[in-house]
Design brief:
The chain is mainly alpha-helical. The chain contains 2 helices and no strands. It folds into 2 domains: 1-35; 41-68.
């Protein structure tokens, strides 16, 4: 196979690899940004705090039942 023929196959594969890698980098970046409290909506923060409080209450109740 000549160099010219191998180059034709290499370029589309390389382009697909860069697009795939770019999508992974962008999605990872967006996920990391979504974990910053400063960038979240007030409603989301309140929901997360409420979920954490409910989990803590459930753990406390479970420990109370075990200690009896």
């Amino acid at each position: 196979m000549s160099f010219k023929n191998s180059f034709v196959f290499f370029l589309p594969n390389q382009a697909a690899a860069f697009v795939s890698l770019g999508a992974i980098v962008i999605s990872t970046f967006c996920f990391i940004l979504s974990t910053f409290p400063d960038l979240q909506d007030e409603q989301e923060l309140q929901e997360q705090q409420q979920e954490q409080e409910e989990e803590e209450e459930a753990k406390a109740a479970e420990q109370e039942v075990r200690s009896e």
